[in-house]
Each structure stands twice: as structure tokens, then as C-alpha cells.
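Worked Example 4.2. Consider the chain below.
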Amino acid sequence: MSAVAPCLQAEGLTVQYPVRGGLLRRVVARVRAVDRVSLAVDPGEVLGIVGESGCGKTTLGRALVGLLAPDAGTLRIAGRDVAALSPADRRRLTREVQMVFQDPFASLNPRQRIRRILALPFEAHGLAVDEALLGALLERVGLEPAHLDRWPHQLSGGQRQRVGIARALALQPRVVVLDEPLSALDMAVQAQVLNLLADLQRQSALSYVFISHDLSVVQWMCDRVAVMYLGRIVETAPAASLFSGPRHPYTQALLGSMPDPVPRRERTHRLLEGDAPDGRDVPAGCGFHPRCPHAEARCRAELPELRALDAAGGHQAACHLL
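Applying the procedure from the previous section yields the following C-alpha cells:
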């Protein structure tokens, strides 16, 4: 972590979903989709969030941009506690963090032209907007001002995602949360959008929270990576350090699932076996212990906390065995 103050910081962030049952639909349990997560994003940094489906990545991203209210913990944007601000100040501050959604087909209103879609962020914050500004936004993401008059159904998947990126950049945020921005696109378009995101990040010194299941993209795109399992961060490290020397057994298994360019080469990490436990019935102790080949008695009884594995504290993992 650098000495520069983080532009986005979460401490002990927790988000729970109620589980309802019975005829009266009463709350019978709560799922901790995000469980006491702490992280920080430095200016100009790309932080990757990885993990299996259902681990809480998307919920964390939505909490970071204010689309979900956390049940516990603190969220700071530019050093200011969001919960401690007045509604007006909170609204102004949340302009600093915007989001690009996973599905470009669902994230754009099919009943609005692109002009209206791009103008809405300005109107919501009482800011002036004109045709030239909207056209410049489209040009910034590789589209033409003529696209302002089109409907979403008239655009390809890659073009829709570019509109989603332009909408996220409209208010000039410091941080953009990218929730699986490539998963709904074919391979050729994925490469185009990925290069666009990298160019925008370099040009504007943007910070990204890059949520993805594609580990090869994360390895190429991100400066640091946080690995999530059952709503918790189990390992975080600089990307180069994580991919060259993962320490947590879950991270090792996750990286072991990456396609190997040399198919017959012996794998250095054991493949991940079994499914993650149901979020309504998380096992005691370390949540990974039912799938961990190295689990001991302590793992089944005591929850491990993140701790530094190097002198600088840049590589951390939550495992009793380290």
C-alpha cells in the first residue's frame, strides 16, 4: 500500500440478505454475502476482486458504489465517512465512485435513446449538460456522436458496453467499479473493451475495482488482487506476487483451475474440488476447511483473520497454517 491516502476505503464492511420462509414469509436466516471486508484503493490503482460465483463479489461492488446499504462497517470516499455526511453531501461525494454493470443488455433502459441515458447522471446531480458534452463522451469510448440518436437495441453488445462505460465516466469519478464487464461479450469484443478500459485508466489516472472470474484478464489488468470466499477476503497481494506465489490453499486451488498453455505439464497446484457451502449454513471456523486438503482441528473451530506474510504487509492471507 502506498503512502498516498486511498480514494476508496472499506473497513469491516458487512452486507446481509434476509432468508424468508413459511406462510408468513418471516425472516428465518440471514446470509452474509459480504462479511467484514476491509480494503483500500489507491489513486490510479487497479484492484482485482476474484472468487467463485456466489462468493460476494457483485454484492461488494454494489456496496462500494452505494447501491446497497451495508449492515455494518465503514465506507470512506476520498477520506470522508459516507455514513456521517448529510444526504446532500453524500450525494455529491458518491459522484466520485461509479459502476459499469455486467450485462450491457440489461443495464441500459430499452425505452430511452442513448442521448437520454447519458444525460440522466447530469440531471440527477443538477448539472448542466449539452450536446457537445454527450458527443465527446461517446467519442472518448470509441463511438460517434451520431449514436446519441440510437436506441439500445440498435447497438451491438460491445457498443452497449461502451455506452455503459461512457455513462460511468460522465461525472468524472475517481473510482470506477467494473462488475464482470466482459462476461456478456464474445472474445473479439472482450479484447476491444479491455484495451479501451486500460487506455482510459492510463489517460485519466482512474482507479478501478475490477471484479472478474477471468483470472488471466485479472493478471494482465490489475495491480493488486483480493481473493474472496464465502463473503470474506482470504488473500490479498500485488498481482505479480499472488500469481507467482499464492499462499492460501483456496487461492492455490483457484489458480490451479486456470488453463495451462502446456496441457501435459504437471500442475503445481491441486485442482479445486467440491462446491462452496450454502451461505445460509456456513461452517464454523475457516469456511474453506471442508474443501481444504490441509485442514486441521483448529481450522474447524477458529476463524482465521487476515495477517501479513511479508515485512511490508503487502501480501496477506487468512489461514492458520501459514
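Residues 8-248 form a domain with the Rossmann fold fold (CATH 3.40.50.300). Residues 187-204 form the longest helix (18 residues). Compare this with Example 4.1 before moving on.
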